[in-house]
Design a protein that fits this description.
The chain is globular, with a radius of gyration of 24 Å. It has eleven helices and 23 strands. The termini are far apart. It has two domains: 8-232, PmbA/TldD superfamily (PmbA/TldD fold), CATH 3.30.2290; 240-485, no CATH class. It is an alpha+beta fold and 487 residues long. Strands 1, 2, 3, 4, 5, 6, 7 and 8 form an eight-stranded mixed beta sheet that branches. A five-stranded mixed beta barrel has the order 9-16-17-19-23. The chain has a four-stranded antiparallel beta sheet with strand order 12-11-10-15. Helix 3 packs parallel to helix 5 (217-232).
Amino acid sequence: MADRSVPRDLIESLIRDLKRRGVDYADVRWERLLHEHLLAEQGCVTTVSLSESAGIGIRVLLKGSWGFASTPHVTKARLARTVADAIDLARASAAVNKQPRPLAPVEPVKARHRSPCAVDPFDVPLSKKLDYLLWANQALLGPDAIRRASSHMDFFKRRKLFCSTDGAQIEQVIVESGAGLEVVAQSGGEVQTRSFPNSHHGALAQAGFEYVKRLDLVGGASTAREEALHLLRAKPPRAGQTTVILHPTQVVMQLHESCGHPAELDRVLGQELSYAGGSFLIPEALNRLQYGSRLVNIIADATVASGVGSFGFDDEGVPARRVELVRDGRFVGYLSSRESAARLKLPSSGGMMRADGWSVPPLIRMTNVNLEPGEGTLEELMRNVKRGYLLSTNKSWSIDDRRLNFQFTTEIGWEILEGRLGAIVKNPLYTGMTPQFWGRCTGVGRREDWQLWGVPNCAKGEPMQLMHVGHGAPYARFDHVSVAAAT
């Protein structure tokens, strides 16, 4: 992991300087991010981009208030100015803020962490990656009704060094790889879309190029194309209350919007209201609220292999861990930081503080928020369903500012008739209220069908940060759900 480009000596000097200045606490985070994006459309390569960003962010706690400053210029003079800016901001905040900001304890460590990666994607020849991308893209093309075919690959390599005045010194290297495709079919005014293997660029993992090969884009392209064409002549679902089984690709977004975001403790404490609203999971709900049925167990797990919400340590130096959010349907835990955990007198931080780069301070973010598997096969979940729907692959969503009332539309659905899959339905939409919806969970799929997905564009904060988070999901069955056709 040794890298002469990592400015260790300068960062250690900054930490010594911050200690001499008498701050309550400070940390320095250096990051370098390399991102390659490849895109093919209509049988041609349209985008090949490689970007690099590197710099240092300095966070200072002084008299109970935070200050943060950053710079891409790693020189003694500029870093001295950045330290002064962070301290000045903390001092100015302290003049207004009179509340103490204690931090939950964490044992400072000297450690190194590297994510799993068999084949470094940045070592794979560009020609090989483009050949595979074009092969998958051309497999989408076909009848005149196919109006757009796109395929993409994204590769990330993030190298980080974190040091704190508490004595932590942590180096991490995280490599992520992802790919996917989308096909759009049109007949008259009818337009339908199918994505593979998931929508919203959701096939992303902490892994190397081997993950992209395992996705089998070429094999999935023909199915996506045929389903898009079939949707053009499909009927919409019948409106009313019925049984719904969510495919793992849709459970991902259900977890993200109605489970992960409301459990963020900064949102609960009112620190996120202006951007994306608060949360119904108020402190009084902890260990009291029946969030769902007894089949519902939700874990925030930063230790799961290949999850894009995994790491060795968060951006406060807190080690990765598993945190229960919902146990047997009862709400039992938050996504927290050192500061927010101390405010609620929790014993320790949940280790969920992450920034999307060196230029911004860390925020409480989801890690891998997973619905733990049950025991049912899909056939067993469909058993005794006289009429219902299997819904797959998120298309759009809406949720209120407390994360209670929601509406989701999926790309595709199938009728379930007398316990068996029937015809494809188009534009299926379902609605619900979060605790009521999860309370109607009557079946959770088995481990063999559990899938871990990446979400590369979770938005939060001002200025907005886009974070990579993960969700592990099986099939899940819900009874008495309102379904309609999206217009």
